[in-house]
Amino acid sequence: MREQLEQIKAKAMQALQEAKESSELEALRVSLLGKKGELTGVLKMMGKLSAEERPVMGQLANNVRAAIEARLEQRKAELAAAALEAKLKAEALDVTVPGEAPALGHKHPMYIALDEVKEIAIGMGFQILEGPEVELADYNFTKLNTEEGHPARDWSDTFYIKEDSSVLLRTQTSPMQIRAMEAIGHPPIRILAPGRVYRKDEVDATHSPMFHQIEGLVIDKGITMADLKGTLETFVKGLYGEDSVVRFRPHHFPFTEPSCELDVQCFKCKGAGCPTCKGEGWIELLGAGMVHPKVLEGCGIDPNVYSGFAFGIGLERMAMRRFQISDLRLIFENDVRFLRQF
Ligand code: PHE
């Protein structure tokens, strides 16, 4: 019996050593120590031993059992440690490998230019407003002193939404003058309203059926043409530098009187004439004028008490000059190879 026990122990130790999985260990535990296990089988034969031998064998059997149990626990721990090691190795993360940088976009050149204008305007106390692109003909034309029958209202130039010509895609941001006066109600009013406008133009290097304007409107007591000139000059100097030179040319708009256009002296050739200014020495920048008394009246503002000026800047044109972009289409194509340059 001693031999048998020694044999069981030796066999068990061998098997435990060879086990590679915790499931194998569990199977060994059952087959060695379980109710129907080998050791239990031997212990069942204890009854046949003499009274002297019995405690000795009992002691030995307990030792074998304890040895097997201890080794079993040890192997369990070893296998668990090995499994953990393998898992860590398989899931190893090399924190020194360079990461993949996320592709960051940036502002579109047109919005860079717009933000510059906004910045200057906010510095002068202007409020930024936005309004609808689908507009009433009333706001786009009638309230801007552009009566029915005026050539600007022609179907060949304007995208009308309704057959009766009452709703359209705004052809200018000037309806924001009306909306601002109606919304704010009473002067002082100082607003800047950038946005999309639409005209039936064929696409080419300088035309697009959709483009952007920035509308400005100032109304208060005692506003004169001098305020218009001073404010617009401040804008231009902020955008193109303190040494930029401007000139005002008479013009006509139905909703301003008097009206003018502002040119800035070509910053490339300083007025001598070059390809940037098409040889003229001056670059047209915006339309402006003193708000027509009829327009003020139509919005419930007494032209005998208040006066004001308005201006409209072509945003694409401004951005094209600012970044020396030669073709308007590039602004809308959104080719990242182009946009990345700014
Ligand atoms: N809305 C005019 C245009 O589109 C520009 C303008 C705005 C002129 C405000 C005078 C005052 O040409």
Defining key terms:
binds phenylalanine; two-stranded antiparallel sheet; 342 residues; BirA Bifunctional Protein, domain 2
Strand and helix map with partners:
Layout lengths: L1 H17 L3 H12 L4 H6 L9 H38 L18 H15 L3 E2 L5 E3 H4 L26 E3 L5 H10 L4 E10 L11 E11 L4 H16 L5 E8 L2 E10 L16 E10 L1 H6 L8 E8 H9 L4 H6 L2 H4 L3
Parallel strand pairs: 1-4
Antiparallel strand pairs: 2-3, 4-5, 5-9, 6-7, 7-8, 8-9
Phenylalanine binds next to strand 7, strand 8 and strand 9.
Query: What's the architecture of the largest domain in CATH terms?
Result: 2-Layer Sandwich
How many domains? The number is: 2
CATH topology of the largest domain: BirA Bifunctional Protein, domain 2
Summarize the main sheet. Answer: 7 strands, mixed
What is the H level of CATH, i.e. the homologous superfamily of the largest domain? Bira Bifunctional Protein, Domain 2
- Broad structural category: alpha+beta
The CA-CA distance between the termini, in Å, is 93 Å
Mean pLDDT: 91
Using only C-alpha atoms, the radius of gyration works out to: 44 Å
Residue stretches low in confidence (pLDDT < 50, at least 5 long) are none
**Anisotropy-based shape:** rod-shaped
Bound molecule kinds, no repeats: phenylalanine
Count of extended strands? 9
Instruction: Using the coordinates above, name the CATH class of the largest domain.
Output: Alpha Beta
Helix and strand element order: HHHHHEEHEHEEHEEEHEHHH
Residue share in helices?
40-55%
Strand order of the largest sheet: 1-4-5-9-8-7-6
